[in-house]
Design goal:
The protein has 183 residues and is mainly β. It has helices at 3-20, 104-108; strands at residues 48-70, 73-86, 88-100, 117-129, 132-144, 149-157, 160-169, 173-182.
């Protein structure tokens, strides 16, 4: 006799034995419902949309600047922070990479914003959004025009989500505006 046949036979014996002594065959039971309040066990808050506006200062650590030739252009990397006021309050710290459309020799001898560039800053934010504690990853993306004017975006994720429009000056700071979802 195979194992499957033995299991089937044993199951049949149990069922018949249960019926023979007057008991019903056991079946599934419904879960018991508790009237106990578990609201303190899990804290949840609904995500909400916030209209955000304010300003930020760009604090650049020029001692961390590296310049790497990329063809006839220059890749600049530098560490720094954005310090926010307004709806967003707190600090976003990280690293910026900018492809500057000039040689590294030209970049090294002129102030920021002399040449056009495209940049990406990868930042970690800690502070508040609309008065609520918040942490998020932030990408600051944009382009710098000769003279230092920036048209950019702040892209928030992981805790706070949304895209803010930015008008700023390179290595100085600027203003932001847009909508965020706060979790």
């Amino acid at each position: 006799m195979s194992i499957a046949q033995r299991v089937a036979a044993a199951t049949a014996v149990l069922i018949v034995g249960a019926c023979a002594d007057g008991r019903d065959t056991p079946g599934p039971t419904a879960p018991t419902l508790s009237t106990q309040d578990h609201s303190s066990d899990v804290t949840t808050s609904a995500a909400r949309q916030v209209e955000a506006s304010g300003s930020f200062d760009a604090l650049v650590d020029f001692s961390t600047v590296t310049l790497t030739p990329r063809g006839s252009n220059c890749l600049l990397e530098v560490e720094g922070r954005l310090v926010f006021t307004g709806t967003i309050q707190g600090v976003a710290a990280g690293k910026t990479s900018a492809l500057i459309f000039a040689t590294c020799a030209e970049v090294a001898t002129t102030p920021p914003g002399t040449y056009r560039d495209v940049f990406k800053s990868e930042l970690e934010f800690e502070g508040t959004v609309d008065g609520e504690p918040a942490q998020a990853e932030v990408l600051y993306l944009g382009g710098v025009e000769p003279g230092g004017q920036i048209d950019g975006r702040l892209v928030f994720s992981r805790g706070v989500a949304g895209v803010l429009d930015v008008q700023a000056l390179v290595a100085v700071g600027g203003v932001y505006q847009g909508s965020l979802i706060v979790n």
